[in-house]
Design brief:
46% helix
Length: 342
């Protein structure tokens, strides 16, 4: 096992061990080693990554060359080209199954050696808040790291382009590198050339937001109880308290669309397989496999946490618009990711 793969396992195990950082197959990590980038495979959980599975080696130079050649005025179908280049840049490794790399392979390629991207419930308190950019400025005004706050951009190709532009622009303006990226209605990215620094910085960012909102360390686990064959009941405190005082159904989810994972795992399930998640009389039951039930519970927990804390603090939600929602709902990459949760 190379040092790069060992490092990928380390940062993935760290970020994937906590449900307040990543839920289901969300989030991704990568490590660069010369001309190769090792990145989490699409749909897998971060904690699944080991020497033999759940990651993909990529030809880093090929991906970087593609993004350096992008000219959005030339009329080319860059979404299709991005898919083609990603497939061509996927390397085979003996003993490793051929998997699809994370859809965020593009933005990982423009960042530094170590990248941790999470859907942290703390970061999403500000990325899903109408005044999130102002909150970030207030919380991190005395911090020694550089950061950028990206507006919402469709995941995949365009997010990679916009992230690269934002980091370059920040560097030209301040002379500093943006180690931290907040993505509106999406999550958090921390990157750098020192593994321990990246992990410590991820902790610093999340702890600062947790402290600002006066939260306690009680949001790090979800609990399911088996009720019968393929029937599981939520015993997660945050979820149970929320559904007792709020109606959580498809109409409510559609009205309050916060980020892609919610659409992928909750809204679409309510639309096409409503029998799988039954919320009534203040309880939540999942009628499906344990694997899918766990993903649904983690996603629901993260979602209601953000709603709850923003509501309790008298803040206004930032919602995805119809165009953004339509892109996610019709994106083949997200349909593929959803299929793996089963």
């Amino acid at each position: 096992m190379t040092q790069a793969i060992s490092d990928l396992i380390d940062i993935s195990s760290y970020a994937g061990a906590r449900v307040d950082y990543t839920q289901g197959g969300g989030g991704n990590t990568s490590v660069k080693d010369g001309g190769v980038m090792y990145i989490k495979a699409s749909g897998f959980k971060l904690k699944d990554i080991n020497e033999n599975t759940a990651y993909v080696p990529m030809d880093l130079n090929k991906i970087k060359a593609f993004y350096e050649s992008v000219d959005l005025t030339d009329g080319r179908d860059y979404e299709a080209l991005n898919k083609q280049v990603t497939a061509e840049a996927t390397l085979k490794q003996e003993g490793l199954a051929s998997l699809r790399p994370s859809v965020e392979v593009g933005f990982h390629s423009v960042l530094k050696k170590y990248v941790i991207h999470t859907h942290s419930i703390y970061a999403n308190l500000i990325t899903c808040c109408a005044t999130g950019e102002e909150l970030a400025a207030k919380i991190f005004k005395d911090s020694d790291f550089g950061y950028v706050f990206l507006p919402y951009v469709d995941p995949g190709f365009m997010l990679s382009v916009k992230m690269g532009e934002a980091i370059k622009g920040y560097g030209e303006k301040t002379g500093k590198y943006a180690e931290v990226i907040f993505m509106k209605n999406h999550g958090l990215v921390v990157n750098g050339d020192d593994k321990q620094r990246v992990i410590a910085l991820n902790e610093e960012v999340n702890n600062a937001i947790e402290k600002y909102f006066g939260l306690k360390d009680e949001y790090r686990t979800v609990t399911l109880k088996e009720k019968g064959e393929n029937v599981f009941v939520s015993e997660t405190k945050t979820v149970n308290e929320f559904v007792k005082t709020h109606t959580v159904d498809k109409a409510m989810l559609d009205k309050n669309s916060l980020y892609p994972d919610q659409l992928v795992y909750l809204n679409n399930l309510m639309a096409f397989s409503p029998e799988k998640i039954q919320i009534k009389n203040g309880t939540v039951e999942y009628h499906t496999s344990l694997k899918e039930a766990q993903t649904l519970e983690e996603t629901l927990f993260a979602y209601v946490f953000v709603l709850k804390v923003i509501e309790e603090n008298g803040l206004k939600l930032s919602l995805m618009n119809e165009k953004d929602i339509d892109f996610i709902n019709n994106w083949e990459a997200e349909k593929y990711r959803r299929s793996l949760s089963k």
